[in-house]
Predict the 3D structure of the following.
Amino acid sequence: MFADNLKTLRRARGLSQEELAGRLHVTRQTISKWENALSVPDAELLLRLAEELEVPVSRLLGGPVEEEPAPDQVAAHLAELNRLLADRNRRSRRIWRVVAGVLIGLAALTVLVTILLMLLNATAFRSITTDTEQTAIPIEAQP
């Protein structure tokens, strides 16, 4: 278990055997022996190893550690989320454009109806005024 956990945690941190060995001041072969279960570190090195890998000692010595997702998987997942958000934003913008278009159309229709009613009222007023003038009896002509 220790050997597999060490290998999994080292890879998850993106460290080579050489880099981890340098940090612990041991040889790369020592790290290889630990990962191949040919030897184990002493207590002091085990503590330093846990510190370097940023995990508790119990995680190194405990049950199997599941691999964390690779950076490529995380990047792919983030790209998918980004695409979904972009799609949602596009749909939202389309909806707002339609709403704005409907509101502008209603405003234009209201203005046109108002102008039409004003013209009809003006025409009706002229017609009433003309009819009144034609049917009016001049004051001098009255008996």
The chain has a mean pLDDT of 86. The first helix runs from residue 2 to 12. DSSP finds six helices and no strands in the chain. Helices lie at 2-12, 17-24, 28-35, 43-53, 57-61, 71-135.
